[in-house]
TrEMBL record:
The lineage of its organism: Eukaryota, Fungi, Dikarya, Ascomycota, Pezizomycotina. Residues 97-123 are annotated as: Disordered. InterPro entries: Tma16, Tma16_sf. This is Translation machinery-associated protein 16. Belongs to the TMA16 family.
């Protein structure tokens, strides 16, 4: 039972004793239904928020793993190289899925999803790829010491890196082209 439903259940049980013997339209039964509906609504909202954050978390986790071996801040060319590696991180899996598929068969959902993500990230790189600033010592250190939590990223510095090499400061969490 989620938290608010537990609280309401406990309060009613304390007052009445057995919660099983409630009348269907009693105040306490309505209170329990409202608490259950509230918990369902909160769970749906939480899962939607986590699903929306997932692509950004995967991207930041990739950069977190990539910077563990880096000692110094990267130059603009180094940043572009890391972004290209990030965009093409699934190339091996896509090729493997294509080889496993019989001739004339449509691609699997996983293969289509990976290709679509790669295409989306390539388009984003042309206009401004959202990423942690790996060209600054402090931001690099914060990313190396990141604990994996979404809220811990609010103090990190982010940029939008274009394919032509221009950098633009960005906000966290990303909003449009900020």
């Amino acid at each position: 039972m989620p938290r608010t439903l537990q609280k309401v259940h406990k309060q009613i049980a304390k007052k009445r004793g057995a919660v099983d013997a409630l009348h269907e339209f009693s105040r306490d039964a309505r209170r329990l239904r409202r608490a259950g509906a509230r918990d369902d609504r909160l769970n749906r909202h939480t899962s939607a928020v986590l699903k929306a954050r997932q692509p950004y978390m995967e991207r930041i986790e990739y950069f977190h793993d990539a910077v563990q071996a880096i000692e110094e801040p990267l130059t603009d060319a180094g940043l572009a190289e890391v972004v290209n590696k990030c965009i093409n991180r699934d190339a091996e899996e896509i090729a493997e899925l294509q080889q496993e598929r019989r001739k004339g068969r449509p691609p699997t959902r996983r293969e289509e999803a990976l290709k679509q993500r790669t295409q989306t990230e390539e388009k984003e790189f042309k206009t401004g790829f959202w990423m942690p600033d790996l060209g600054e010592e402090g931001a690099l250190l914060k990313l190396k010491n990141w604990n994996g939590e979404w809220t811990a990223l609010s103090s990190a510095k982010f940029i939008r890196l274009c394919q032509d090499g221009s950098k633009q400061e960005s906000s966290f969490p990303p909003k449009g082209m900020s």
